[in-house]
Amino acid sequence: MEDTGAGGKRWYSYFPTGEVSQVIQNATNTSADDNAVWTTYTIGPLGRLVEIDKHRNDIASNCSTRNEVVDTTTLQYDTPYAGQESDRYAPPNSGVLAGRLTAMMGSAATMAFGYDSFGRRVL
């Protein structure tokens, strides 16, 4: 655990190889707090952020129940976002997408990124 001051606390999980696999950041000492808001960052085996889960507790209007609400954002790398016209996000046979973020998919929206032959981002 790491105390980040005003940013709260961070807890780390690791792959067997010693690389970070998950980071949980919380502004309070526990996620059991009624006002808790915390974020879970999942890191893939290549060391890239692959998922962000933002958690919060939602209390019913009659105050009878408390439910955890999770907003998930998934990050995609290396391949064009599915359903796009061919060659929109990468020149043919350029390999420009290798190692780059190509899409962020969440509950509210999806953003796809592409890159021209110089590696400049194209939306």
List the helices and strands and how they pair.
Blueprint: E1 2-3, E2 9-14, E3 20-26, E4 37-43, E5 49-59, E6 66-77, E7 101-105, E8 110-112, E9 114-115, E10 121-122
Antiparallel strand pairs: 1-2, 2-3, 3-4, 4-5, 5-6, 6-7, 7-8, 9-10
Would you write up a description of this structure?
With about 120 residues, the protein is an all-beta fold. The protein folds into two domains: about 1-75; about 80-123, no CATH class. It has no helices and ten strands. The strands form two sheets. Strands 1-2-3-4-5-6-7-8 form an eight-stranded antiparallel β-sheet, with no helix packed on it. A two-stranded antiparallel ribbon has the order 9-10. It is extended. The protein starts with a strand and ends with a strand.
Defining key terms:
single chain, 123 residues, mainly beta, 2 domains, 8-stranded antiparallel beta sheet, two-stranded antiparallel sheet, 0% helix
